[in-house]
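Example record used in the benchmark description.
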Amino acid sequence: MTDSDHPDTRHPSNARERFDRWSSSYDSRRSRLFFERLHRRLAPLLAVGDARRVLDVGCGTGNLAVSLALDHPGVSVTGIDFSPGMISAAREKLSPVVDVSFRVAAAEELPFDDGGFDLVYSTLSFHHWEDRRKGLTECARVLRPGGRLIVVDITGDRWYCRMYRVFGRFRHLTGHVAYAKAAEISGLFEERGLTDVRQERIWPSIVLTAGYLPV
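Model output (structure tokens):
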């Protein structure tokens, strides 16, 4: 069995409280430098193209969502996060010059109609999802036919990530973090009917997985 087979062992309420506390320091200089570097690497890989409705799942304090909207005038970006504290911090970055909105929601219960987005992406959030299968099913549901889903996450292929897998039964001591292997993520994409699933290792421990919803 894999960690993704045990969604009931995680503690979303504890995680939400932890992220609420973290929201006030999330944009510290050290964190900002890390995410700015990551976002520069991701910008061309997200391949917004002709997408006009974009969803950021697990948006944190909204940095990538706002940056994406600034770089692509005419694109409407919606960011969701299960932490009210993170969303509160994200809303402080809203500006009339960008079409961005934020709301509190979890990946497993997206409050949107079917087929409402051209591009759905998630960065460094997947390992926090309470139920990965349900979350990816929801992401696929809100994609339009031909739309693209992208998940960028730390994978369990490296030894320091495997420690969480080895001690998964003690996850209440480490939060609800559980890193999936790259092959597991691509398999979950394919289970949901996504096609042309591709992966790219963008950093030693971070893999981008992308796939399309069939037309």
